[in-house]
Amino acid sequence: MYFTPTELSGAYIIDLQRFEDNRGFFACTWEANEFAAQGLSTNVVQANLSYNRTKGTLRGMHFQHAPYAEVKLIRCVRGAIVDVIIDLRPDSESYKRWISVELSADNRRALYIPEGFAHGFQTLVDDVEVMYQVSQFYTPSAADGVRYDDPAFGITWPLPVSEISPKDAAWAAFAG
């Protein structure tokens, strides 16, 4: 795997090291020792799959409060998304900054998201599947979010929102 730091402290884009032959290729998508060598969390307690029917669907911006804050490893395994993360760590040099990364079945990239970040994505095509590996179990009492269109962040989404849950549309304005 190839680990590329992003401009947000602690977040990485991960590209596969492919071993190719006439059959196709083989690549490791998770290896705890490689993550540990980068100083990244290796704790994975849950893996999730999100299926999204419609182009323009938006999910986010989600996070969990400490002590249930999550590290996430996100990969799009069918279709394509724009994945967005926001650094919500008040003591971080990249506090309140966001980045977007295109993740797709074609580019096979993953995004490593440290604790203290809000996460969301928008589908770029119909019929998208997104895999998540997370370091904490989902804890409803710790779950929270920020608005996808909050002016405190000024996120630029690539498409008009076609689908969003009532919960995601109703997150309060950021107060931090």
Outline of the structure:
Pfam families: dTDP_sugar_isom (PF00908). The protein has 176 residues and is mostly beta strands.
Provide the fold topology.
Layout: E1 2-5, E2 12-15, E3 19-21, E4 24-26, H1 32-37, E5 46-52, E6 58-64, E7 72-78, E8 80-87, E9 98-104, E10 110-113, E11 117-123, E12 128-134, E13 143-145, H2 166-169
Antiparallel strand pairs: 1-2, 2-10, 3-4, 5-12, 6-11, 6-13, 7-10, 7-12, 8-9, 8-11
Task: Report what the structure shows.
With 176 residues, the protein is mainly beta. It has a single domain (44-169), classed as Jelly Rolls, CATH 2.60.120. 6% of the residues lie in helices and 40% in strands. It has two helices and 13 strands; from the N terminus they run ββββαβββββββββα. Strands 1-2-10-7-12-5 form a six-stranded antiparallel β-sheet, with no helix packed on it. The longest helix is centred in the N-terminal third of the chain and has 6 residues, at 32-37. 28% of the residues are buried.
The level-1 CATH class: Mainly Beta
CATH superfamily: Jelly Rolls
Query: Which regions are unreliable across 5 or more consecutive residues at pLDDT < 50?
Result: none
CATH architecture assignment: Sandwich
Helix content: under 10%
Total helical elements: 2
Number of strands: 13
Q: What integer value in Å does the Rg equal?
A: 16 Å
- What is the domain total for the residues? 1
CATH topology: Jelly Rolls
Shape estimate: globular
Which assembly state applies to the chains in this document?
A: single chain
The proportion of residues in beta strands is 35-45%
> Spatial order of the strands in the main sheet?
1-2-10-7-12-5
Family: Belongs to the dTDP-4-dehydrorhamnose 3,5-epimerase family.
Organism: Oscillochloris trichoides DG-6
Pathway: Carbohydrate biosynthesis; dTDP-L-rhamnose biosynthesis
Subunit structure: Homodimer.
